[in-house]
Every structure is written in C-alpha cells, then in structure tokens.
Amino acid sequence: MTISKHAAHGPGGASIGRRDVLAGTAALMAAAGGTGTFAAEPAAARIGAPAILRGAPDVAVIGAGAFGGWTALALREAGARVALIDAYGAGNPRASSGDESRLLRLSYGSRAIYTRWAARAQALWEQRQTQFGRRLFYPNGSLRAMSAQALAEQRATFDAMGIAYDVLSGSEVNHRWPQLDMSEYDAVLYESSGGVVKAREAMIAVSEIFQQAGGTALIGRALPVAKGGPGPITLDGNSFACGVALFACGPWLPKIFPQLMGERIITPRREIFYVGSPMGDARYRWEHVPNLADTHTYTAADVDYGTKIAARLHDVPMDPDSGDREPSAFLARQVRDYVALRFPGLRDQPIVATRVCQVEQSDNAHYIVDRHPDLPEIWIAGGGSGHAFKMGPRLGEYLASRLQGRSDDAEADALFALSAHGPIRHEH
Ligand SMILES: Cc1cc2nc3c(=O)[nH]c(=O)nc-3n(C[C@H](O)[C@H](O)[C@H](O)COP(=O)(O)OP(=O)(O)OC[C@H]3O[C@@H](n4cnc5c(N)ncnc54)[C@H](O)[C@@H]3O)c2cc1C
Questions:
Q1: What pLDDT shows up at residue 117?
Q2: Which residue in 58, 148, 297, 363 is a FRET match for 344, CA 20 to 30 A apart?
Q3: 417 vs 9, 99, 226, 264, 381, CA distance in Å?
Q4: How many CB atoms within 10 Å of residue 51?
C-alpha cells in the first residue's frame, strides 16, 4: 500500500486529502461528542461515508513506531477516526523501531510489572501475527548469565508468577547447545518463553493493517501548537485539527518538547552487527539456538539476517535526524572478539549487515505516558529505554484505553507519569 505525502488510500481506494481532514474536523468533533471522545462506531460504518466525514481524525497519532503504530491500530479497532502521522514513514531506519529485530524476554528482575506486560505482549504478538497473516514472533527462548543476587531476584519473581525457567551451568549450556561456549559461567538462567520479534517489518505490517481497517496514514512533520494557539497541532506548518494528539515520537521527544522532555530523555548511540552463518549451516538459526545475554553484551539468534550482536558503547549522544549511521571499525573489532569467545564456529564469518540507532533513555528506565501538563489535548508516550519494542501490542492496548479516558493498569499509570520522572543525572 502506497503512502503519499498528506494523502493516504483507504481499502476501497478512496483518496483522503488533508483539505478534507481540515474542513471536516470541526463538524466531526461535535458529532463525535466533543474533544477527546469518540463514538465506538464500527470502522465499517464509516467506510463509504462522504469524504468529508471519513477524513477528520478523533485522534492524531504522531510517530508510527512501537508506541504510536500499535496505539493507532488499537484506537482504530475501537472505532476511532485516527490519523497516523510519521515524518519518515513506518519502519524507517532513523526510528528506534527501525532495526531488523528486537528481543522479547520475560526476565526483568524484581520489576514484575514488565514481566507481566511482556507475557501479555507475547500472547498478543501470537494473536496479531495470526490476524496479520505473517510471522513476526520467533519463540527461541534466552540464556542470561547473572550474578548470584540478580539470579535470586529473578527466580523469586518467576516463582511468584509461575513462569518456567531452568538454571544451567556453563558446561550444561555447552552440552545442550554445542555451537555456544558459556563455560566461564557457573549459573545461567534459561528462559524458554520469549524470543525474537521482527522490528521494522512489524511496524510496516501494523501500518498496513491500520490502513486496511480504515485508518489514515500521512507522511509529514507534526508539531504541538503552543498554549492559546489554534491547536492542538500543525502538520508541516499548517494547522491540523483533531480531537486529541498523541506524540509517540521516541528519541525525537526532547526536540519536540525541549522544556518538558529535554532533561527527561537522552538519546545515546547504539551499534548492532549481524554476523553471517557458514553456507548451509542452520545451527545459529532461532530454531536451534536461544538468544544470549552476558556480562559483555547480548545477542539474538539468526532470523534470516545473521546472528545479531550488540556492541558495547558508553553513552554518546546521537541526533535522530542527522546522526551518522555508519558503524565504527573499533566496535566491529570488539564484536569479532566476542564472536570468537561465544560462537567459536562463527569466528571467520563476515559481518553481513549493521544498524546504528539511538536509544531513548529515561532517567529510571520506566516508560513515560502522560497528558501534557499545559496542553490538555496533547498526550506524550515514549522513553522506551531499550526495552519497549517487545511491548508494542500491549502498549497499543494500554494507550488506547488511556486515550479513551480509562486505564487498564493503575500501577503503570503511576509508574509512567511525568511526575514519576526526574531529569537525567549526567555522569561527569
Ligand atoms: C539498539 C537498540 C536495541 C533495542 N533492543 C530492544 C529489545 O531487544 N527489545 C525491546 O523490547 N526493545 C528494544 N529496544 C527499544 C525499542 O526498540 C524502542 O524503545 C522502541 O522501538 C521505541 O519506539 P518509539 O515508538 O518510542 O520510537 P520510534 O520507533 O523512534 O518512533 C518514533 C517515530 O516518530 C516519528 N517522528 C518523530 N518526530 C516526528 C514529527 N515531528 N512528526 C511526525 N513524526 C515524527 C519518527 O519518524 C519515528 O518513526 C532497543 C532499542 C535500540 C536502539
């Protein structure tokens, strides 16, 4: 499905222009019951209505990444008229959601809320891939080398929640997966839940399904309108009317809301390397090997793209628009050394692909979801802190409930509130 600038095509092929959106919004908001609420009218009932009634959004979701894409889809499925606006398009390589794959794990130490959310997200990934008719989740489990204290904490959480796991010695790991070498560790947690999810492909799929359900996808740059202005947002400098706007702009949030988010989120650079398998050798594929995390780094098994290895890098700030996306030679060297240590059979294999992206790190690694304190028609969601992609379907479910004036998780509401997040303390 093609997404053109300021125009998207619904499933019936009708083109919805921005003028329609602007012209129809005032009437529609009144019909929908006023700002911030929308009738739970089935999507099908609106398809086929005059363009002026189809085009105006109850909700503008800005950002088609893990937070915004899934929320737009969940809102559309709840009957809302939704515009999903992204400056570069769903799955774009500048976005934090733009890599090939992301890990889904349930182990979060004592932070049980995320274990609960990850388990729910896994169930939703399974449902969604069936709904979408394409595979997005690859259940291969994970191995995690941990300190004795971290392991005890994790076991307590898993035991309390009834989540299955094993604790293996390094030599047991080597015996079970001879393509790995974890012999230096005494205790490794093996979590059979979780696995790998496709990243950019999933976000493109979400955007396509959203449009098939009657949602409108637009390419453009949206910005909040200052207090007292004709809000709530502009699109490429022109006023864009909508009931509520959700800014789910990941690492761009500090640029869009410098005063509010400038000190609450930092965007350090990360480099990812994919190492190829030997020709015809399936041992490193997800069907045959779990993902790893140890004191050096973490990896994801090969899902059609090579074994993924994250380089270790101190926090170097990166601008999501203009940041250089070429990998560093010294980190490639570090990755080769790690491969020789942990995957001896891949020692001589080439790096076949790389990705450079930025994390949007909050002060305490909890997500941020809240209404803007001065602009009541604007919501903000982000601060994924290196662990939000897996939660995408769950984030969509949760955020859709919040934007409809409900909540399905009071603990999350408190944890993700702006007031629970202070400024990042920089190390000097
Ligand atoms: C290297 C790395 C590894 C990670 N590993 C994992 C993992 O294994 N498991 C996991 O769960 N999570 C992981 N994460 C975290 C996860 O990928 C992110 O938290 C998540 O993808 C962030 O999604 P987002 O929607 O907040 O932001 P993004 O995906 O960045 O989306 C924001 C979107 O907003 C758009 N945008 C920005 N400004 C504007 C504007 N003004 N107007 C219109 N559009 C705009 C952008 O184009 C972009 O598409 C990792 C992150 C990184 C960087």
A1: 98
A2: 148
A3: 36, 28, 21, 12, 10
A4: 17
Confidence of residue 8 (pLDDT cuts 50, 70, 90): very low
Smallest Cα–Cα separation from 310: which of 276, 345, 338, 329? 338
Contact in structure between 327 and 350 (CB atoms under 8 Å): no
Q: Which two tokens stand for residue 53?
A: 């009634």
For 103-159, the three-class secondary structure string (H helix, E strand, C coil) is EECCCCCCCHHHHHHHHHHHHHHHHHHHHHCCCCEECCCEEEECCHHHHHHHHHHHH
Q: Indicate which residue's Cα is closest to atom 12 of ligand 1.
A: 387
CA dihedral 308, 173, 391, 357 (to 10 degrees): -20
Provide the pLDDT for residue 423.
84
Ligand 1 center from residue 270 Cα (angstroms): 12
Q: Predicted confidence band at 106 (pLDDT cuts at 50, 70, 90)?
A: very high
Residue 343 to residue 331: CA distance in whole angstroms: 17
Tell me which residue has its CA closest to atom 14 in ligand 1. Answer: 386
User: Once rounded to an integer, what is the mean pLDDT over residues 298-319?
Assistant: 96
Specify which residues 363 forms β-bridges with.
none
Determine the Cα–Cα distance for residues 93 and 120; give it in Å rounded to an integer: 27
Give the per-residue pLDDT at 147: 95
Asked whether 246 lines ligand 1 (CB < 6 A), one says no
Pick the residue whose CA is nearest to atom 27 on ligand 1.
Answer: 250
Tens digit of pLDDT for each residue in 125-145?
999 999 999 999 999 999 999
Atom 33 of ligand 1, nearest CA residue:
63
- Whole-number Å distance between alpha carbons of 380 and 403: 11
What's the chain's average pLDDT?
89
Domains of the chain from N-terminus onward: 3-95+200-264+365-420 (3.50.50.60), 139-196+268-358 (3.30.9.10)
> What spacing in Å lies between the alpha carbon of 39 and ligand 1's midpoint?
30
Assess whether the C-beta atom of 297 lies below 6 angstroms from ligand 1: no
Cα 379 to Cα 402: distance, rounded to the nearest angstrom: 10
Report CA(384)–ligand 1 centroid distance (Å). Answer: 7
Whole-number Å distance between alpha carbons of 340 and 135: 31
Give distance in angstroms: CA of 47 to centre of ligand 1: 31
Could you tell me the pLDDT band of residue 426, with boundaries at 50, 70 and 90? low
By most ligand atoms within 8 Å of CB, the mutation choice from 5, 92, 100, 102 for ligand 1 is: 102
